[in-house]
Amino acid sequence: MDEQINKDLFRIIDKYWDDFNDKRTMAGVIPGFIPIIWFGDIKAYLKSEIKTVTVALNPSWHEFSSNSKKLSLSYQRFLGADSLLSKTKLNDSDKERLISIYSNYFCEDPYYDWFRCYDTKCMGFVSKYGYEVSYGYNCKPHNTAIHIDYYSALPTDPVYSKLKDDSNCIETYNKLPNKDLFKELLGVLNPNVILFSSAYKSFNDCMKFIYKIDNNLKPDITCKDDKEIKLRSFLIDNKLVIHGRNNRQPFAPISDKLKESFFSTVFDDYKFDYGRLVWKKIK
Length: 283
What we know:
The protein is of the alpha/beta class. The chain has one domain (3-281).
């Protein structure tokens, strides 16, 4: 990994770890686990010709359960993470270890119900996480994707968007987000493709905050059912940006047939300029 990139990641890890220490005892934050700054092989991602990030709001409690029972704490997806939990500061060796822990996420037992949708229904046209989530074997894709979260790297129960519905968690809902950290991380990652799954309000907030996009941004391509638009694609800052709602899975509820039709259209209408590292709309 490039020396400057490594320094940048170390700096970002320090900031996320400070944020973790400030907020780890707040109501709703899952006790006994570390922040997850990203999911996936960061070194392979940085070597990819087309860099893809998938984005949600914050990690789910499902990441830390071995048997799908709420808060049945497990480190099986982040082996070695427990040894870092008590540290208020990380040394360089700790940071290297943390990078390895995050990078190995898709090599063992990723959270199948969430990540398989991206891997098999959405981004397979350009990228893979490096693990065939729905088929259960490791692979080495030409372009490796990673996952990041907009509001926080801290797992909560309930997930961030539901914290406001719990009177004990209102303060957490208001204070948990650290969008400046996300902006800094996204700047280092410098993706070419962003797949963002959330309520449209949160997506719009992110685009305004990161790229100064106003509310009048019009998508180039949409996919809708009888009731509303379900998927939208944009060209923003030379990046291909796609938004869809989530409902226990990214880009849901929407049929697989409509997803496949939408993404086929997107990758017919847009082409990536490998020389300039930008997307172009050709239709």
